[in-house]
């Protein structure tokens, strides 16, 4: 069962390990990222940052969908991590049970503008956000579980 999909360009780090994973009761973290899935050094560093209470799987987007939709994964409490809005949108297309996406941290890049203290978006991101909203997916901004929820559509 998917507990949460979080967009955070840092993927696995302290907030994920120390606050989100226990708050969700997640026992499996799935990093869905094509680049990281091929990078042994990044895999090693994320394994060092993961919480002891959860298994960490690092998969390509396609392999993440295959794993999450497999019958054997149904009893897991899965916390999905992606590093960009476009990857979240791809997963939302493939995972109909996904009802909510958390925007945790997206650093500013050329052509982007801030919509919160930790999230910056560009025109392509906004187009993806609008598509997700049309599908009825709840989009929230929170860095940690105790933060007040800010709805993404209220920031555009």
From TrEMBL:
Gene3D superfamilies in the record: Phosphotransferase system, sorbose subfamily IIB component
Entries under Pfam families matching the protein: PTSIIB_sorb
Cellular-component GO terms for this entry: cytoplasm
Localization annotation: Cytoplasm
Secretion signal span: none
GO MF term (any one): protein-N(PI)-phosphohistidine-sugar phosphotransferase activity
Record's keyword terms, sorted: Cytoplasm, Kinase, Phosphotransferase system, Sugar transport, Transferase, Transport
Main location: cytoplasm
Domain PTS EIIB type-4: 1-156
Single GO BP term: phosphoenolpyruvate-dependent sugar phosphotransferase system
Keyword Cytoplasm in annotation: yes
Residues annotated as transmembrane: none
Keyword Repeat applies: no
Protein name: PTS sugar transporter subunit IIB
Organism: Dyadobacter luticola
